[in-house]
């Protein structure tokens, strides 16, 4: 019954009704965090913009499709969660929050990201999964400190070449897209530690053995004819993952030579006498 009442009140824009949804949130929290997730919000409560020391703001699982310009006052914000809302475009004011380190945009209706996103040069983690992206926005390649990119469950068919310039990137999650080939740009990113291409349409995997930083590759649920070759110690999740990874050919050669070396010290075998009879 309580949730039903909240849902009905959410449709009424009057301030008293919106304040009911916010409960006792009238002053700046001591932990500098405001969590309004699952509050049936249809508009952002303006008085939160007065909490200028706010560091974390969670607005997940509401009915928001816009944000007020006054949000720009929250210049100390480091974490902003806008996932599970109704955003068709990223509100421009988000790009003014230059201290953001983590931005959650998953489960919306985004088809692109604005060029102004490049202003968020402190961004280290970006979640854009479960949107309507047909291609990875080029502006993502401008986020030089990005370490983790969650872009699963979109409609991606390829990745931009400029992605290789993100030398701080360590994990990339691309599950549930429309990739028919393993993205070539990832082959030029030896610093990647985790690659997830689960649930795509990849039929063949090139060797990943040269990716020196790789620790985990997830390639399950693809119509592949082979498992990706990886260096020793790299974990694989997918078909034939239990098979021994392809060794480094140079290391394999050195290993063979090391095994043969003791025999090279032995004297040559005696020649067989000409008159020796079997």
From TrEMBL:
One of its GO terms (biological process) is cardiac muscle cell development. One of its GO terms (cellular component) is mitochondrion. Keywords: Leucine-rich repeat, Repeat. This is Leucine rich repeat containing 10. It holds the Pfam family LRR_8. It comes from Vombatus ursinus. One of its GO terms (molecular function) is actin binding. InterPro entries: Leu-rich_rpt, Leu-rich_rpt_typical-subtyp, LRR_dom_sf, LRR_domain-containing.
